Amino acid sequence: MALIENYKLLKPLQMSDYHLLKNNVVFGPATPARINPRSHAPSEMTATYYEQRSRAGLIIRKPAPSLSKASDGTDHRISTPPRRRQEVVDCVHKKGGKICAALAHGSAVAPFIRCK
Protein backbone atom coordinates (compact mmCIF):
# COMPACT_ATOMS: atom_id res chain seq x y z
CA MET A 1 0.00 0.00 0.00
CA ALA A 2 1.39 3.42 -0.98
CA LEU A 3 2.07 6.01 1.66
CA ILE A 4 -0.30 8.97 1.66
CA GLU A 5 2.66 11.30 1.01
CA ASN A 6 3.06 9.67 -2.42
CA TYR A 7 -0.33 10.81 -3.71
CA LYS A 8 -0.24 13.70 -6.19
CA LEU A 9 -3.39 15.09 -4.59
CA LEU A 10 -1.37 16.18 -1.57
CA LYS A 11 1.66 17.52 -3.47
CA PRO A 12 2.08 21.27 -4.15
CA LEU A 13 0.54 22.59 -7.37
CA GLN A 14 2.17 25.44 -9.32
CA MET A 15 -0.77 27.20 -11.01
CA SER A 16 1.30 30.04 -12.50
CA ASP A 17 4.57 31.85 -11.91
CA TYR A 18 2.91 33.62 -8.98
CA HIS A 19 0.49 31.08 -7.54
CA LEU A 20 1.65 27.97 -5.71
CA LEU A 21 -0.99 25.92 -3.91
CA LYS A 22 0.09 23.71 -1.02
CA ASN A 23 -1.85 20.78 -2.53
CA ASN A 24 -4.21 19.83 -5.36
CA VAL A 25 -7.36 20.11 -3.24
CA VAL A 26 -9.91 22.69 -4.37
CA PHE A 27 -12.94 23.53 -2.25
CA GLY A 28 -15.60 24.35 -4.81
CA PRO A 29 -18.22 27.06 -4.59
CA ALA A 30 -20.54 26.68 -1.64
CA THR A 31 -23.37 28.92 -0.61
CA PRO A 32 -23.48 29.04 3.15
CA ALA A 33 -26.52 30.85 4.50
CA ARG A 34 -24.28 32.75 6.87
CA ILE A 35 -24.78 36.28 5.61
CA ASN A 36 -26.87 39.04 7.09
CA PRO A 37 -30.23 38.67 5.27
CA ARG A 38 -30.95 42.41 5.36
CA SER A 39 -27.62 43.89 4.34
CA HIS A 40 -26.32 40.81 2.47
CA ALA A 41 -23.05 41.40 4.30
CA PRO A 42 -20.73 38.55 5.23
CA SER A 43 -21.08 37.89 8.93
CA GLU A 44 -18.58 36.61 11.47
CA MET A 45 -20.07 33.17 10.79
CA THR A 46 -19.18 33.57 7.08
CA ALA A 47 -15.55 34.27 7.95
CA THR A 48 -15.47 31.30 10.35
CA TYR A 49 -17.03 29.00 7.71
CA TYR A 50 -14.30 29.73 5.16
CA GLU A 51 -11.54 29.83 7.78
CA GLN A 52 -12.46 26.27 8.81
CA ARG A 53 -12.05 25.15 5.19
CA SER A 54 -8.81 27.03 4.55
CA ARG A 55 -6.69 23.86 4.56
CA ALA A 56 -7.85 23.18 1.01
CA GLY A 57 -5.31 24.21 -1.60
CA LEU A 58 -7.76 26.75 -3.01
CA ILE A 59 -11.21 27.93 -2.00
CA ILE A 60 -13.42 29.17 -4.83
CA ARG A 61 -15.86 31.42 -3.04
CA LYS A 62 -19.44 31.68 -4.12
CA PRO A 63 -21.41 33.78 -4.46
CA ALA A 64 -19.13 36.26 -6.12
CA PRO A 65 -19.55 39.81 -4.86
CA SER A 66 -22.00 41.83 -6.90
CA LEU A 67 -21.14 45.23 -8.28
CA SER A 68 -24.74 46.30 -7.94
CA LYS A 69 -27.78 44.89 -6.15
CA ALA A 70 -29.75 45.54 -9.35
CA SER A 71 -27.62 42.97 -11.19
CA ASP A 72 -27.72 40.24 -8.56
CA GLY A 73 -30.29 37.86 -10.02
CA THR A 74 -30.85 36.59 -6.48
CA ASP A 75 -31.83 37.99 -3.13
CA HIS A 76 -28.97 36.34 -1.26
CA ARG A 77 -25.78 37.18 -3.14
CA ILE A 78 -23.17 39.00 -1.07
CA SER A 79 -23.18 42.64 -2.12
CA THR A 80 -21.12 44.64 0.33
CA PRO A 81 -18.23 47.06 0.51
CA PRO A 82 -14.79 45.48 -0.01
CA ARG A 83 -13.91 46.04 3.67
CA ARG A 84 -16.48 43.45 4.79
CA ARG A 85 -15.40 40.89 2.19
CA GLN A 86 -11.78 41.47 3.20
CA GLU A 87 -12.55 40.10 6.68
CA VAL A 88 -13.40 36.72 5.11
CA VAL A 89 -10.27 36.77 2.93
CA ASP A 90 -8.07 37.71 5.90
CA CYS A 91 -9.40 34.76 7.95
CA VAL A 92 -8.51 32.32 5.15
CA HIS A 93 -5.07 33.86 4.61
CA LYS A 94 -4.39 33.76 8.37
CA LYS A 95 -4.63 29.97 8.18
CA GLY A 96 -2.37 29.80 5.11
CA GLY A 97 -5.20 29.24 2.62
CA LYS A 98 -5.88 30.83 -0.75
CA ILE A 99 -9.26 32.11 -1.86
CA CYS A 100 -10.79 33.56 -5.02
CA ALA A 101 -14.29 34.56 -6.07
CA ALA A 102 -16.23 32.56 -8.63
CA LEU A 103 -17.38 34.63 -11.57
CA ALA A 104 -21.14 35.02 -11.58
CA HIS A 105 -23.81 37.25 -13.05
CA GLY A 106 -27.52 37.73 -12.67
CA SER A 107 -28.20 36.47 -16.19
CA ALA A 108 -31.31 37.53 -18.04
CA VAL A 109 -33.47 37.18 -14.91
CA ALA A 110 -31.84 40.03 -12.95
CA PRO A 111 -33.98 42.86 -14.39
CA PHE A 112 -37.20 40.90 -13.81
CA ILE A 113 -36.40 40.02 -10.20
CA ARG A 114 -35.81 43.68 -9.35
CA CYS A 115 -38.99 44.87 -11.12
CA LYS A 116 -41.42 43.13 -8.74
Query: In angstroms, what separates the terminal alpha carbons?
Result: 60 Å
- The stretches of 5 or more residues where confidence is low (pLDDT under 50) are none
Coarse structural class: alpha/beta
Secondary structure: number of strands: 5
N-to-C SSE string, H for helix and E for strand: EEEHEHEH
- The CATH architecture assignment turns out to be 2-Layer Sandwich
Strand order of the largest sheet: 3-4-5
* CATH topology call: Transcription Regulator spoIIAA
Percentage of residues assigned to helices: 10-25%
Count of distinct structural domains: 1
The fraction of residues in strands falls at 5-15%
The best one-word shape is elongated
Give a topology summary:
Elements: E1 13-14, E2 20-21, E3 26-27, H1 44-52, E4 58-61, H2 82-94, E5 99-101, H3 110-114
Parallel strand pairs: 3-4, 4-5
Antiparallel strand pairs: 1-2
Helix pairs in contact: 1-2
How would you explain this protein's 3D organization?
Residues 62-86 are annotated as: Disordered. Residues 72-86 have a biased composition (Basic and acidic residues). InterPro entries: Aldolase_TIM. It is a single chain. This protein has 116 residues and is of the alpha/beta class. It is 23% helix and 11% strand. The strands form two sheets. Strands 3-4-5 form a three-stranded parallel β-sheet. Strands 1-2 form a two-stranded antiparallel ribbon. The longest helix is centred in the C-terminal third of the chain and has 13 residues, at 82-94. The relative contact order is 0.18.
